[in-house]
Here is the input.
Amino acid sequence: MLVQKFGGTSVKSIARIKNVASIAARAAAEEPVVMVVSAMGDTTDYLMKIARQTSLQPNRRELDALLATGEQISIALVAMALNELGARAISLTGAQIGITTESVHTAARIVDIKTDRILGYLKDGFIVVAAGFQGATKDGDVTTLGRGGSDTTAVALAAAVEADACDIYTDVNGVYTADPNIVSTARLLKEISYEEMLEMARVGAQVLHPRAVELARKHHIKVRVRNTFNPEHEGTILLGAEEMEIYRPVGGVTIDRDQARLAILKVPDRPGVAGDVFGALAERRVSVDMIIQAFHQDGSVNDITFTVRRGDLDTARLALEDVESRIGAQGIIADRDVAKLSIVGAGLMDQPDIAARMFTALGRAGINIKMISTSDIRISCAISDGDAERAVKLVHDLFHLDDEQEF
Amino acid sequence: MLVQKFGGTSVKSIARIKNVASIAARAAAEEPVVMVVSAMGDTTDYLMKIARQTSLQPNRRELDALLATGEQISIALVAMALNELGARAISLTGAQIGITTESVHTAARIVDIKTDRILGYLKDGFIVVAAGFQGATKDGDVTTLGRGGSDTTAVALAAAVEADACDIYTDVNGVYTADPNIVSTARLLKEISYEEMLEMARVGAQVLHPRAVELARKHHIKVRVRNTFNPEHEGTILLGAEEMEIYRPVGGVTIDRDQARLAILKVPDRPGVAGDVFGALAERRVSVDMIIQAFHQDGSVNDITFTVRRGDLDTARLALEDVESRIGAQGIIADRDVAKLSIVGAGLMDQPDIAARMFTALGRAGINIKMISTSDIRISCAISDGDAERAVKLVHDLFHLDDEQEF
Here is the structure.
């Protein structure tokens, strides 16, 4: 049994809907297929827009009812397109499948999935076309799953029906060692571990939402990232690290060019001040990424430096100005053009020289490292956005990521 | 308890959605309100278009799933707009209400309506915003009710919850004695009987679908036709003929300018030939309106004359050409520009001179009557389309329809 998920760009037009129908029909000749489909192109954005025109703060239950129509439209059209190809197909909404969620609107979590209706249709030879992104409360109110919702639906359905694989169709061939638009020698990864994928997705390689990757790791679902517009390509397979054939210390390099840096200076060194600073940011709904707290020369104060999305910079600066005098800090520095360069690899923790090699190479090339943060399988540096492309190419070359054999 | 139905033009834009929300919120200050809402403006036409682009003959189950999203969008927005006005409101789809229909797609009839969910919300002070035009089979598949579906939903819900009245909001003040665009002295009818309304709707005054009128008559629902854009106006009330205060032989005059006339000549007078003629038309899905069969001078043959929608004329002529030689007829005549003039009145059958007065007046004005057909409460004549406006004004004056007192 196979689950195939198609995102919004894959079903953006009627022509593309016919394309995904033909991909599913071909697969269904081999094994039973459950499709999970997102709303067409910008439909969700359009529905959000008319909701905001109707109400300054749209009722969340009604917003979910509204947004869910986006997938209902696309699944009905995909089922029609499959019929047109001579395949048997049936569309099912989240509520019709029996995807039960919490009674939390616009960001519900899945509580239970009934499989009898899906399995019944599969047994009768139907391709099931399931709506992504949505479910229903046990009272029958429509809910949506929030960010990464359709990816999550696909992996959750794959787990529920015990599918052999879950194919996530996007508009690229799979996961690359770096962005091919920046690094011409970037190589497609045949395999990647769930953990590496999590770090890749978080730092900018937006092919599969981290929430879905977590779920795939938990249920051990074989997820394949594939290209809707090049369906013959085998793509990238997500596996547990222990199952991977090839084990490289550095799997890929990513760049996130949507960062800005802020520092609040000479923050008195007493308990609770960091909470004041980041509390003020949270109140204004600013997400913070890298954080560094460094002792100032003068021992009784600290400088706190962090990065945010570039669009949040002005809001974040206002938040800092609010707390500055209250906590007795002295000065705020803002740096609008920052990029975050990261290397990701399941083997990073075993090879402590990797970080040093990267920092040395960047320094020799005159690229200034403004901040560093690390996880078990990732090393990130904040650099000037103007250095971004050059730095990615440099690091890609440094670790020979273009070379299949070298590791 | 009050049911208010708002059609597609009443919710065409966000501004109009806010308008209907304010109408409902005002009414809800007096009594519990159930709104029934159609899809916004041309949404249904747009969804039909993309369905046809996807499949030459869209699967009817999927077409229903697709079309039903139109009302789901409008009810969610109306509920949001009510919230914005400070009213409590909840949107419910046909399936969520528990409107069970036959398992027939695109033209299902309502089998059962559950009222517990609606009544529960009303008791808790909510305005219920119900989706028109749709229901669900007992297996939970979405169905639509076909033509006049939202009107039918409104009247059926009014019957189910035992509402005191069902207000049908349109873009006119109510039902007039004639089209005010043609007859400047046309007068708004305060009351009209179900039977007269049926004849009015069928012959061209498109404010309320005959299917809904039949249902209102059956359940004796007090239906009011009102103006969304002039909600202070009290509109026209539909009642049983026995309840009407004023009883006029002629209630109104209507004109249907979308007619064409065909005749097939010298049809041999033997059993089955009429069946051959109209069977050929039905096969090509041509609806026939007025029919006359007249003996030709030569006693063994008949001329069969009938009217069709103007757009069906060429198809109808082809159908006649197909049967002409087969049944031994000789000649086909087509007349593209025909209008059907009708007078409607519950008292027509009691006053046989009415028809004679109408025919005489038309004759004196040089307006040629090409065909005549009658029912218990309607007399229709086919005339030249060029005479249409003059004829309506003439008949409106003849029966003093502008005068409230004259009857």
In short: Chain A has a mean pLDDT of 91. The radius of gyration of chain A is 23 Å.
